[in-house]
Amino acid sequence: MKMSGLSGLIIFFIATSVLLGCGGGGGGGSNGGASNSTAHSITDCYGCHADGLIAKYADENIFSEWRDSAHGNYEGTNYAGSPAYDDLTDTTCNSCHDDRGDGELLEDYYNTTGISFMGTVNRPLVGCESCHGSGDTHFGVGQMQYPDPDASICGNCHKEDSYHAEENPEGDGIYEAYQSSPHAGPVSEEAYADGSTTDAQAKCSKCHTDEGARLYKEISGGYDELEAAAYSTDPVADVNAVQCRTCHDAHDTSKLLKPAGEGTSAEYETCTACHQNEDDSYHGTNNPEFDAADTTRTIYDTHFDNDATNNIEGYIIDKSSDRACSDCHNPHDANNGLNDEWANSAHGGHILQTIDVTGKADVAEKPWMEYNWKGSDRQACHRCHTATGFKNYADASATYDPVNNVFAAATGVQKEMLYCWGCHTNNVGGLRSPGSYVSPRYIAGTATVVNGSATVSGTGTTWNSTNTPVGSLFQVSGDSTINIVKTINTTTQITLNSVYAGASASNVNYSISTYIVPTGRSVDPGTEGSTICVSCHSGRQTGEFIKNYPVALTGKNFGSFNSHYLAAGAIMFRTIGYEYTGLDYSNDISFIHDTIGTTGGSDGDNGPCVGCHMKTDESHSFEVVEGDLGAVTDIRAYTNVCSGCHGNKATLISTLNTRDTQYNAALSALDAQLQGKGIYWCVNYPYFKSAAACGGGFYTAWPDKDTLGAAFNYNLLKNIPAAYVHNREYTRKLIYDSIDFLDNGALDTSVEATLVSGDAYDYLNGTR
Q: Could you tell me how far CA 581 lies from the centroid of its own chain?
């Protein structure tokens, strides 16, 4: 509604009369604001700053933005927000939640004026003076004490131990994190205009100063556009380092520096305003004084994968996500140390080691490059070979179904690696909790069960040889009966190895598991951190699966029994090997590697995986030693982990190198026994062939389960580097017993006579 000049003038005097109660003074205040020597309130500010009241004093819709934000703590006229005064049981809460008592005036203000704009009941709120300081000298025309509050004002509340870390762990210690970050400055010397210590070059100010970032935020076309605009302006005066206000709008806490774009979130737009996008438009080839592959400032070289290639050129980012960047980065400390360690690790595909002269990565190594793991034909692989699959599994392992996985890059052949958010729930180290890895549910749904029938019909899930291989355990919820899958007749029907004798009726939940373990065993470190690791590093099938296999072995190649790879967790906890009937596979009394990281101390309390692999100065490289296996030159984790039980470091290094030689010699001795049976291991899946040098067809003439078990143990251990460290006694027994059976078809401790002496003999020597 348009006001006449007289009407506007009348309103002006009414509004300013409210503010004339403001006295002089300033400084102090629990939040860095002014003293409370003269009473002020949020209602005084509202008199002039109500949305659109007087153009001279109104800043767009700043008051309603504040009211509806977290600082205004408002959720409707009658207020149903959080916290309420009743929630502030600790008197210290008000120092942040309502330091000036503004919220206790709202009900009286409504009852007196009839204005419901700010609500009708009292509530805690962070008012104008909480951040801007005293209004004593303001009067609607003068300067506020803090017209543009800097990070120190925010830091009065957003600091360590003054935040609800349990509700929002990423919010704890924001100010301390910011203070130690590159964002906090100081402003780079190169950014200043010639001869100045206060004014920045316009072209540099966009990313290196708070004022420039806000001034040039709309320039997003790249260096040329920035340069053209910047050179037409004077230097930016009196600049400061990046502040909280640079990226956040305190009046509307839902706003960031830049709004969402078409298919991109506000977070993505805000971060890439400086950290670039999919090319080197600011730094690099267009500005050669900077390093084109500076991954500390730019992301074009590592963060974008080409959907048309089978290579991995970068991480896959969901640009539309509100956490496009903060899922992996803590933007407040801006420390890429852990991120770079991860990117140099196998989990990150060693991507930082493969950036080429064009400034782009090209990761051509297993396991991430081998297949399009997110494909519908690889659903059984989603759980460990994609971050999306693992996240969904770890969050709900009992009901996990890969059919429900939705990938950020739904089209193309982009491949996910194990990103930060696969294991972590937030960017300050929170962990997912997949639970014990005992009987993973490869499928889950409902089954129509006819009592007394050996045939089971399924609905809701398609059964196939990938998710329901022959030999799997089949169990209906509510029943103690466990059957074994004998055949897969159609995509909706399987046959069990015996008549179904359960008590459950139709349409009940069921689970299928190929991961069958010896009675009383489980892969369970009992700790959150290492449980995440063993969820994938425990293999997919076990020796017990072979023992329970219900049909003839002849005609089956080894692919039906493959244990899968890097199953160190299963070796640690003795769940995976083919164990010969009647023999003891318990740990030696002196074995305590499975207790590392479970009792606190320097090795932590997150179990043996974390206790060894993440107790170095570069925790997210996951490397315990330096040098190749057999040629170890240093033990990075020695002081924090090994020193408590082992001798000096040099002696332990020598022992490790010797043991590696012995272990591989013992595997070679087992390989020789298999070859003596006409079973030849080949590096190509499914591994065992009928002639040397990977010749002939795949071996399928398994004479018995014990021979197949020996081959299983060989392939299992061949694919676990340093298995002798994870559980030397268990690996020794698996190799020993496999050789013992193969050398004469009997378990008669004939290994000593078969090997006589040498490295293999030294590794396996011991009583059985």
A: 41
